[in-house]
């Protein structure tokens, strides 16, 4: 079974910003992760910042909107994602396992919800430490074991209804445990002298069934042991019915956000 770090799956997932945007929409009624992360970075506006795994450039755009004047770099394995930062940052197609940056080249590194996708975590964290100057910092985020458990439960139930077999452990089988907060803290502490954990976990309400269904459709079929095709299409159809039934009764769906952020110096 493919895992969350399977590079073929990762490239397919982030070939465009559509899947990421669908998942970001889940959190629109919760506290802003962007603001939390940028506040943790303690930025004055004159630091060189690299957003490594920048996705659709959400954090870089927010930095410019805050008046950040110094150079911003948006690095991503996806050329489409890196290119989306063009208005706000210098775009670079790059792999965190081999960053095209000089030693100590940046003041702050942002590495937001992406390290769990990297095959060689030790090498990636070493690269983060290498490119951050002495006295600088890296802000890294990840998710805990209960993250989006409600969405995972819907997909698991839909998979069981369609195939007759429930996916084994769902999120854990997908390999998310490799970078849960505690193993992440231990790994980061091997490279950085100071690692501070900030628990961002909370439940966030979603009021629109279409947002939930879009988020479920954004997941790779491999996350429940399937491949793209008729079976996955049927699973999503059943999941949509389950979501509709839930909203007809309850009007909203609380979704667990088990995010955590580390400030590494």
Query: Could you name the CATH class?
Result: Alpha Beta
Number of strands: 9
Architecture per CATH nomenclature, i.e. the level-2 architecture: 3-Layer(aba) Sandwich
Can you count the helices?
10
End-to-end separation in angstroms reads: 36 Å
Low-confidence blocks of residues = none
| Count of domains | 1
Helix content: 25-40%
Query: What's the Cα radius of gyration?
Result: 19 Å
Give the quaternary arrangement of the chains: single chain
Biggest beta sheet summary: 7 strands, mixed
CATH homologous superfamily designation: Vaccinia Virus protein VP39
The proportion of residues in beta strands is 15-25%
**Strand numbers in spatial order across the main sheet:** 3-2-1-4-5-9-6
Mean pLDDT figure: 94
Topology of helices and strands:
Blueprint: H1 7-13, H2 18-24, H3 33-40, E1 49-52, H4 58-65, E2 72-76, H5 79-83, E3 90-93, E4 106-112, H6 121-131, E5 132-143, H7 149-163, H8 181-189, E6 195-199, E7 202-206, H9 209-218, H10 230-250, E8 253-257, E9 259-264
Describe this entry's structure for a reader.
This protein has 265 residues and is α/β, with parallel strands linked by helices. It has one domain (7-264): Rossmann fold. 38% of the residues lie in helices and 20% in strands. The protein is built from ten helices and nine strands. Strands 3-2-1-4-5-9-6 form a seven-stranded mixed beta sheet. The chain has a two-stranded antiparallel sheet with strand order 7-8. Helix 7 crosses helix 10 and helix 9 runs antiparallel to helix 10 (230-250). The protein is globular. The two termini are 36 Å apart. 42% of the residues are buried.
């Amino acid at each position: 079974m493919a895992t969350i770090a399977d590079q073929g799956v990762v490239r397919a997932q982030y070939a465009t910003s559509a899947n990421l945007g669908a998942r970001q929409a889940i959190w629109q009624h919760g506290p802003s992760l962007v603001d939390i992360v940028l506040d943790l970075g303690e930025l004055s506006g004159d630091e060189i910042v690299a957003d490594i795994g920048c996705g659709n450039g959400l954090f870089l755009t927010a930095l410019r909107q805050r008046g950040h004047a110094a150079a911003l770099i948006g690095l991503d394995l996806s050329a489409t994602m890196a290119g989306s930062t063009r208005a706000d940052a210098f775009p670079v197609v790059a792999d965190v396992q081999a960053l095209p940056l000089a030693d100590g080249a940046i003041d702050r590194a942002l590495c937001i919800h992406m390290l769990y996708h990297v095959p060689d975590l030790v090498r990636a964290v070493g690269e983060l430490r290498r490119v951050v100057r002495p006295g600088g910092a890296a802000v890294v985020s990840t998710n805990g074991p209960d993250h989006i458990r409600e969405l995972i439960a819907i997909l698991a139930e839909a998979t069981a209804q369609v195939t007759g077999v429930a996916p084994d452990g769902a999120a854990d089988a997908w390999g998310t445990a490799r970078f849960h907060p505690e193993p992440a803290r231990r790994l980061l502490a091997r490279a950085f002298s100071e690692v501070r954990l900030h628990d961002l976990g909370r439940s966030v309400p979603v009021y629109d069934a279409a947002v939930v269904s879009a988020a479920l459709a954004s997941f790779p079929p491999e996350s429940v042991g399937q491949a793209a095709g008729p079976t996955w299409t049927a699973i999503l159809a059943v999941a949509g019915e389950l979501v509709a039934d839930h909203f007809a009764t309850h009007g909203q769906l609380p979704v667990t956000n088990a995010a955590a952020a580390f400030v590494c110096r």
